[in-house]
Design brief:
It is a single chain. The chain has strands at residues 6-9, 14-26, 30-33, 51-54, 60-67, 73-76, 81-84. By secondary structure, it is mainly beta. It is elongated and about 50 Å long. It has one domain (6-36, 48-84). The chain is built from no helices and 7 strands.
Length: 86
């Protein structure tokens, strides 16, 4: 996705044009994780971490979109579909 692309947001059924892309704005690629099974009802503490692994969504871009029917706003990249590339 780059500035000038026509995008579609399925949730609101709106079309817009990409104005700006802020790369890697949301999320992280890795995080501390607990891999060993825990007993039901136990509290999770920071000292229980036993691994370091990839996150579910990874890094995501923040996109400034100029909509056709509402003011411009920032949207996460995974919520948009590219319709036409510039």
């Amino acid at each position: 996705m780059k500035p000038g692309d026509l995008v579609y947001e399925p949730k609101s059924r709106s079309y817009g044009i990409v104005e700006r892309v802020d790369a890697d704005y949301f999320g992280a690629s890795q995080a501390f994780k607990i891999y060993k099974p825990l007993a039901r009802g136990k509290c999770i503490r920071g000292s229980m971490v036993d691994g370091f692994g990839p996150t579910k969504d990874g890094k995501r871009d923040r996109i400034l979109v100029c909509w056709t029917d509402r003011p411009p706003e920032y949207v996460e990249s995974h919520k948009l579909e590219v319709v036409n590339k510039s």
